[in-house]
Amino acid sequence: QVQLVESGGGLVQAGGSLRLSCAASGSIIRLNAMGWYRQAPGKEREPVANINRGGSTNYADSVKGRFTLSRDNAKNTVYLEMNSLKPEDTAVYYCYLQQVLGHYWGQGTQVTVSS
Question: Mean pLDDT, to the nearest integer, of 31-42?
C-alpha cells in the first residue's frame, strides 16, 4: 500500500504564494509519475502539474509560468510552488502517485485565494 501525505494549503490573498508538499511512503515500485490535480466547487477534478520518472514536468495552461513542480527523489516528495495566485485557483488540491502497482491519491488540501 502507498500513503500520500499532503501539506501546505491555506488561505492567501490574490497575488500571494503557497507551497504544497506531498510525501509518499509505502510500497513504491517503479514510480512512473507524481503530480497534482485540483477540484473547485461544482467542477470536475482537473490536472494541474505532473513530473515523470525522468524528471520531465507538464503543467496545465492555466498555471504555466506561475506554478513550479519539483521532486526530492530521496524523500519521495513533490513540491508545488504556487505564485501569483488568483481567486480561480481556489480548490482542493490532490496529490497523486502512479506506479506499476497502481494509482494512488492523497486526502486533499484546501487552497483558498481571496480577491
Answer: 94
